[in-house]
Amino acid sequence: TILVPTLKLSSPGRNIPERDLISYLVFGRPEFQVAGGGESQALQLAIGALSSEFERAVVNDLGLGVETLDIRPGINPGSANSFTTIAVGRQFGEKWFVTANVGVCLGAQASGFGSRNFGATVEYRFARDWRVQASAAPVQSCSSNRASDLLANLQNRYQLGADLLWQREY
Length: 170
What we know:
This protein has helices at about 20-25, 30-35, 40-60, 150-155, and strands spanning about 70, 80-90, 95-105, 120-125, 130-140, 160-165. By secondary structure, it is α+β, with helices and mostly antiparallel strands. Strands 1-2-3-4-5-6 form a six-stranded antiparallel sheet. β2 (about 80-90) and β3 (about 95-105) form a beta hairpin.
């Protein structure tokens, strides 16, 4: 009922315990990997908490005219590389929302910083429940396998996307 809602998580066609499904939703990995993560897992959780607090401070307390700030620190246990992204969003008028993002590879595979690090998303609400969204972002990775021609080609390309979104509020 609406007074006592019930939520049941399942994975059709797979036998995944509900504890692992919750862990996938919260941490992006099964429970045994979270519990056995050790130092790198603790570091990842601490950096995630700090970035969340920083996002809140920038959006709510500093009044910089930013509606959204999303920081995704990249931490790869056992690797010297991490890919970190930062996205800033702002509302323009009643129907337009623009998000700009930047991604950088930190660590041993760090590369120069330039226009190839930036992407953007533009969203237009043309009706109460309907929006259209277009995005452009560079294809990036911190892969250490740079010997392949395919990966070298991907580093110079942008990925483009367009979505028609329907949202219903109850």
